[in-house]
Write a structure and sequence with these properties.
This protein has 7 helices and 7 strands. By secondary structure, the protein is α/β, with parallel strands linked by helices. It has a single domain, classed as 3-Layer(aba) Sandwich (Rossmann fold). A 7-stranded mixed beta sheet has the order 3-2-1-4-5-7-6, with helices on both faces. The protein binds S-adenosylmethionine (SAM).
Length: about 180
């Protein structure tokens, strides 16, 4: 079993091909998870598991668990392999399927949801996940600066729904961090 940081370093060489998040976004997610002591996290869009390793390594510290959703079986299998190499596979359930079908099947209350799949589906992912996010839970959406024109409905929703307090953060390709108030 390799240390997870060496697996991350190796995967950074193919980050463009697998459209992985930047290391600073991984660090950002890790800080959020550890500061809220998250126990249950949902990731939408696994790819080869780069961001999944960041999330799982943080959840190892909090004693939490991760469900990650990917509809490409080949990528899901690669992610599972990388998680095994990183010694984090016991923390993560990789579910193969369309997030639009899989999110409603998650019988879990989430402390944090990370969105990084189809940009024009972000709003639907969030609307499906929202009832399962605890009051005080966080939503992080990636690529919100560079691909903002593909997610106008998401941006409108997170900045105009009273139950969500949201902020744009210009970290790498941009993230919107939202905080759920009330239930
Ligand atoms: C930007 S990549 C994810 C990158 C990953 N979060 C990382 O940083 O390592 C998006 C992934 O979402 C997957 N995807 C896109 N739409 C999906 C959907 N509706 N359900 C499940 N997976 C989806 C794609 O196959 C792709 O692997």
């Amino acid at each position: 079993m390799e240390n997870y940081t060496s697996v991350l370093k190796r995967l950074e060489k193919t980050a463009k091909e697998y459209t992985n998040i930047a290391p600073e976004n991984g660090q950002f997610l890790s800080i959020l998870i550890q500061s809220i002591k998250a126990q249950n996290v949902l990731e939408v869009g696994t790819s080869n598991g780069y961001s999944t390793i960041w999330l799982a390594a943080a959840l190892k510290e909090t004693g939490g668990k991760l469900i990650t959703l990917e509809f490409d079986p080949k990528r899901a299998e690669e992610a599972q392999g990388h998680l095994r190499e990183a010694g984090l596979d016991h923390i993560v359930e990789v579910r193969i399927g369309n997030a639009l079908d899989e999110i409603p099947k998650c019988d879990t209350t989430f402390d944090l949801v990370f969105l990084d799949a189809e940009k024009d589906e972000y709003r639907r992912y969030l609307e499906l996940a929202l009832p399962s996010i605890r009051s005080g839970g966080l939503i992080v959406a990636d690529d919100t600066v560079t691909m903002r024109d593909e997610m106008p409905d998401y941006v409108e929703f997170v900045f105009n729904t009273p139950m969500l307090h949201s902020v744009d953060i210009p970290l790498d390709d941009g993230v919107i961090l939202s905080y759920k108030v009330g239930s």
